[in-house]
Amino acid sequence: MRKTKIDTWVIEPIGRFINNSTTSGIVLFAAAVIALIFANSPWSEAYHHIWEHKFSIGYDEFVISKTLHHWINDGLMAVFFFVIGLELKREVMAGELSNPKDALLPLLAGMGGMVVPALVYLGFNSSGPAQDGWGIPMATDIAFALGILYMLGDRVPKSLKIFLTALAIADDLGAVLVIAFFYTSDVSVLSLGVGAAFMIVLIAANLLGVRSPVFYGIVGVAGLWLAFLLSGIHATVAGVLAALTIPADVKIQDRLFVQEIRRLTREFEEAKTNTFSLVTKEQLHILDEIRFFSKEALTPLQRLEHAMHPLVAFVIMPVFALANAGVTFSGSFAENVGSYVTLGIICGLVIGKFVGIAGITRIVVGLKLAKLPVGVTWRHIYGAALLAAVGFTMSLFITELAFKDPELILQAKFGILIASFIGGTAGYLILRK
Fold this sequence. Notes:
Blueprint: H1 5-19, H2 23-39, H3 44-50, E1 54-59, E2 62-67, H4 68-94, H5 100-124, H6 142-151, H7 158-182, H8 189-208, H9 213-231, H10 236-244, H11 254-270, H12 281-296, H13 300-324, H14 333-337, H15 340-366, H16 378-387, H17 392-402, H18 406-432
Helix pairs in contact: 2-6, 2-13, 4-7, 4-10, 4-13, 5-7, 5-15, 6-7, 8-9, 9-10, 11-12, 15-16, 15-18, 16-18, 17-18
């Protein structure tokens, strides 16, 4: 293969950076730090103001006008949840959640890691507007947690990475259900009915064999997402529902694919060539066939997930962090940190996650309902349970749904940042040894 200077100096380094397991967490962390720096600098007012600019789409009388902050949280995050939906479907069909016996332990541990933190938070905030924040410490930031875990390299067994991935996916599914059932405004039956109609269209298209991502994108975004946006049920739920309708079957089985690629390779070798850098018409035709068979041998679900992962990891989540992690440390910092909301989130994420995940794992293994993954010790489980306390992205997202009072939002963000730092650092140190 002939390499150019642009390949050596730009494309290959960027490719290695994107494909590295830790880089998405690093980029997300950098975005959070940048947001904190700007929020506590002379440009603090400009930083907070930029997200309040309004952006409108529509025509004639039908116009949707929202702030940039809302478009990020309701629009870009719907794409994030769409990719989560794709991951969920793949894991259930052929991944770590496909075997009920293997999936039992991370599923139950994930449930414990959601229920106990919520109860801990409610112990601090049992009434009033602050009570609505019970869902905040339930979440785990999969990018941050796995990024820290992958930084440890061979110090931790691969089976622990699989366990934490399955647990985080179960956690994400729980977060979606919590958002759908508990963090919704007044529901518009008409808009919800329109959304249901678009959902039926997507399901029918799947059953009829429609495999075009463009079709699912148009119907899913212009139809399902818009209907949910207007219905009162959070639009991110539409992302997950749309993902579940994406086809997950191949048109060409692996044996036939191998046969056809071998045939086309022979034909390409025997085809006439020219002295120019361009391929001949015959070669172009063969290459088109190779591209066709390669496309049909891959499921639309996997193709979309693979294509959209860099967009989510390196654009959507960092932008979300930039817009939501900017907490200004004012003179009332000590007062805010000592609030019941902040303490409830810190204790919920750090203590609740640890007790919920490690405790349920102890019970399940003790009752011999499941076994620890091969090579995983209890020290590994304790470290992973602490890493799950890194709520960050998902916790910040639920904060915006749970609270309308700016003071409560500020207190919640303090709690999330402190708990994520404590959990991430403690989990890393335990697993590093």
